[in-house]
Amino acid sequence: MRVLRRGDTGPEVAEIKSMLSALDLLTSGGETNGHGASFDLDVEHAVRAFQQRRGLITDGVVGPATYRALRGSTYHLGSRPLAYLVSSPVHGDDVFALQERLTELGFDAGRPDGGFGPQTERALKNFQRDYGLVVDGICGPATVRALRQLSPRARGGRPVFLREREQVRRSGPRLRGKRIVIDPGHGGPDLGVSAHGVSESEVAWDLARRLEGRMKATGMEALISRGPAHSPSESQRAQFANDAGADLFLSLHSDGNRSAQAEGVASFHFGTGNGTTSTVGELLAGYIQRELAVRTGMRDCHTHPRTWDIFTRTRCPAVRVEIGYLTNAGDRARLSDPGFRDVVAEGLLVAVKRLYLLGENDQPTGTFTFADVLAHELTEVSAGHD
User: Fold this and answer.
1) Is the pTM of this model over 0.85?
2) Does domain 93-157 have CATH number 3.30.1300.10?
3) HEC sequence for 57-122
4) Do domains 11-72 and 173-385 have the same CATH topology?
5) Which of these CATH numbers, 3.10.129.10, 3.40.350.10, 3.40.630.40, 3.10.28.10, describes 173-385?
6) In which band, very low, low, confident or very high, does the pLDDT at 1 lie, cut at 50, 70 and 90?
7) What gap in Å lies between CA 322 and CA 328, rounded to an integer?
8) What is the predicted pLDDT for the residue at 108?
9) How far apart, in whole angstroms, are the C-alpha atoms of residue 256 and residue 345?
10) By C-alpha distance, which of 253, 242, 267, 235 is closest to 183?
11) What CA–CA distance (Å, rounded) separates 370 from 345?
12) H or E element that contains 13
């Protein structure tokens, strides 16, 4: 379909309005005469609200990604047969619901992302085999009935997230050898949020370099997902982390808002908001949030679960942190200060260290220093030789 924006008219706009109305984002649905449907300011606001909800770029324009997400939102589990199609991949909220249901029952469908891929097919076949259904990898009426009958009695398996926590425990408290991908947002011609000569991409790049240096000093393998002149897509950033075999993925951003009063720091991790969450991602997001809020004095905007592509496509636990609002004079002044960026970098490093300590030999929030981290590493090395 063509890209749709404010001022466009026609049946495609009518379809968009109908889908937005079904989601209660627009008070009026598609017109009876589709050719007269117009993409007005109300539609643009509704599209932005939908994009914000789904973690898409909030530009108010319906391009391929937004259209696919809108179409996917019209499906519920059981409204159509679901199968793995290599040539024409199936996406939608019904696939997301299937992945969550299989995971609740203890079948490893991977991290729910709304795309029916080979891992979802394997989990579905295993479910069908275990419950005496036809093992065809197709989620049809009989399979949906079985899933609905069983789900109230068996919840909480989530093997992918249990494995995440166990891997952290087994890897031990030392940072040496841990492989972290640092992902500075935007880049190249994409400046991200920009205000009064300060751009999000430059702030993120500088923070990434400061964090990289500190991590390497501890013996960690710190990899940056992009160069200063490049702006990979979300899927490319996730693939970089997957190809590197990363233990953690840390995405650095700053925010912006039409209101100059908006301020503070917020952290995000994978989670659906109804119980399915990356336990390690949530734990790391909490450490980061508390460390940065205490160390910087920024407003604490808390941690939040999201199903953004950067979370669903990375195989390792991932966190995205929005450090301040560049549209806020106070936050912008802080982020423009190299000394403040050092404070942020130290807080991020300490949060990662606290994740691997799992509560042992830890210190109160905001008191752990870079020197303490290095001392811990030396102590752990000595203990390992004893």
Assistant:
1) no
2) no
3) CCCCCECHHHHHHHHHCCCCCCCCCECCCCCCCCECHHHHHHHHHHHHCCCCCCCCCCECCHHHHH
4) no
5) 3.40.630.40
6) low
7) 13
8) 82
9) 21
10) 253
11) 10
12) helix 11-22
Say which range, 115-129, 162-176, 248-262, has the weakest mean pLDDT: 162-176
Complete DSSP assignment for 207-261: HHHHHHHHHHHTT-EEEESS-TT----HHHHHHHHHHHT-SEEEEEEEE--SSTT
Output the pLDDT for position 30: 45
Give the closest residue to 185 by CA, choosing from 30, 9, 310. 310
Query: Is the pLDDT at 2 greater than 50, yes or no?
Result: yes
| Local structure of residue 134 (DSSP, 8 states) | -
CA angle in degrees (0–180, nearest 5) for 41-42-44: 60
Residues 6+ apart with CB under 8 A from 379: none
pLDDT interval class at 365 (50, 70, 90): confident
Is there a contact between 291 and 365 (Cβ–Cβ < 8 Å)? Answer: yes
